[in-house]
Amino acid sequence: MTEEKKLIEAALFISGRAMSLEELRTLTGIGALGYLKNTVDLLKNDYIEKDSALEIMEADGKYMLRVRNEHLGRVKQFAQDTEINKGALRTLAYLSKNDGILKSSLVKKLGTRIYADVKELVGSGFIKPQKAGRTSKLWLTEKFKKYFVQE
I need a surface site. Which of 75, 113, 138, 141 has the fewest CB within 10 A? Predict the structure, then answer.
């Protein structure tokens, strides 16, 4: 396997999301999109030839490494519960040091972008809001502690 294919494979594995050819171009430094697409297709065929439980799927011009459908039912219980974006992760890091902070104080400290972050974090179960007058206090949940705190 070429170094380019190994790099693409590693990126698809670690990202856990679909990646565009443009992202893979930036990663590999390969300027020719046709050559890059061919390299991804060769990697895709490698997974088919070795009859792997994994496959590379293409959708809307993006590529993703995933578990084949025939194996998914038996292994999906081991998947991470959720994936959160970088902004929400930064907000969560701040909350981990300031458990029980007022949302209004968080806005003053981090800016208005936290509204979307808080909504995502509440939806994923990492924090819970508790009404406190016209604002709310944000508390870390047990799920956060199980997911992030090493004992």
Answer: 75
